[in-house]
Amino acid sequence: MMKRNKMLTAMLAAALAFGTMELGGAAALTPTGTTMIARVTGATPAGETLPNPNQTAVNYNVGGTDLGIIWDKGGGQYFVAFGDTNDSAGNWSRSNVLAISSDTNLANGLSFDTMIQSSPGYAKEILSSKKINNDEMTVIPTAGVTVGSRSYIHYMSVNHWGSSGRWYTNYSGIAYSDDNGQNWTKSPTVKWNNNTSTWDSHFQMAAFLKDSGFVYMYATPNGRFGDVYLARVPENGMLNIGDYRYWDGNGWQASESAARPVSIGVTGELSVAYNSYFHRYIMTYLNEDRQAIVMRDAATPVGPWSGEKILVPGNFTGLGQYNAFMHPLSNGGPDLYFIMSTWYPDYNTHLMKATLTSDMLGDNPISDPSFETQTATPVMAPWYVTGEGGIDRNLGYARTGANNGYVRNGSGWNAIKQRIVVQPNTNYTLKGWVKTSANNTEGYFGARLPNDGAVIGETHFASLSGYTELAVPFNSGSNSVVELYAGLWANGGTWLQLDDVSVTRDDNLVGHAGFESQPTASLTSPWYANGNAGVDRNLGFSHTGANNGYARYDSGWNAIKQEVFVEPNTDYTLTGWVRTSSNNNDGYFGARLPNGGAVLNETHFAGLPNYTQLTVAFNSGNHHSVEIYAGMWATGDTWIQADDFRLTKT
């Protein structure tokens, strides 16, 4: 993507081999057997035997380029967008080019029908840029999607390149085409402006996912070292910036500043897709710290996302590879085809293939939970060390598999740690297996705020002569990111070893289920109102705790509701506690499709003078989210109070 800003460091090997872990949960995915299928762009260098069906250097004067963002444009064709492009003589004259493909047999390569051209044999730049350093050096596509007959590209305006893996953007925006990609218009209003002093906007690079009537936009700051954030917009609202809503960890808000991470960095060149064969969402990107292309997966578009699994090890080609833009043809089976870029010595793109297999890691958000992808004795990302520590590799010290983490020192605080994304105000359990030296007296295992922040849950341990499972329950509070750690205060040659770490979330899928985290008397994300509804705060009306939700009015439909993300074709049970005014005779508690859609199941209730638990069982059908609700049709001054919602898989 960035001809002056590629992976310049040597690539490190990483083999994917997880220890046996009893984590349970939903089936998750592991990529295996990654291979290079064919060249996509550029001329065939001397000695290369890969197929090169497009011969772009000869046919389109594209000697070098990168990215290869693929999306379904309809009509049996696919767009493929590329970044900074040079000609056959090595001149960097274009910031981006675009190909069209109808090839459905990827086993022997990806063939183009054509590239968008300004003259015969010359692929044209589709999005202009000033090409002035520290102003607008280039404009590069980062995502694409087609809705109806209109296609959209998310792009970034690069102010200047920085050190390896870092660049700085003026803004990102949306461009659209109504003529099959021949001409593109940059929307003057749909932009996410960057702060050019702090460069910290969360929405500068993106990946699009079209799902259930929305376009989901996963985004990162400029460069390769940010977390992943999420917005969505109705399909017909792509060119209305006011229609975008931002995920705050529990629900959707209109303010971009409310966005919280859905996945932890280090993230570069992101791609996201839904695989209908496995019923899992897949996220791929370059982790510069691990110097590998990695993959996460999840049961819903908002997560929780699994820990990273290595898709392309760092030393796979020795060419400085980055990005894994998934082909939509991969979305219905176990074969994952994607376009990967290389930087050295040949700045171009290649078609890759991996096979996805089910694993038992479930939704464990910890990356490399058994340390099996660590390829050097010093600890490597995604694990980090305070004090002295590293990896015992093939030394026979592991609980399972070949490797374990350790810390060892004569004095001070020494810990091995990793950050993960959590849902705010949610209960979790951290587990891990620890053993120590006989002289350990001050060991701690727990969760805290990042960068050695305030502890939110931990357990103390002394000497553990054999691997012992430790468990720490914690509540995330208002936080979206926490730091997990195992450490000790050393007192002369003290050590601990750590293996097989996991985090599980409470099985209740309802956010703010008891309304205790609602900050005001008005319903706030993730709760919303139909008609007149709000929160009774500290009024003594709750079933438990201090707060409850309510709806009250003299006419019409009035309800408390929340969108909850679920797994398709899965059985769920919804419960909640409700009481009403004596004149209520038309109340409903249940689950339906979002935005007042079809009811999946509900129960009717009349007057309930005391809190009564209501229960509704339903199947999610072919849907990724549902709306739970408690409401009533008011006649005169009618009210309901609701508390302690719970939604779990049956």
From TrEMBL:
Domain of life: Bacteria
Extent of the signal sequence: 1-26
Keywords, ordered alphabetically: Signal
Lineage of origin: Bacteria, Bacillati, Bacillota, Bacilli, Bacillales
Coiled coil: none
Name of the protein described by the UniProt record: DUF4185 domain-containing protein
InterPro entries: DUF4185
Domain DUF4185: 53-353
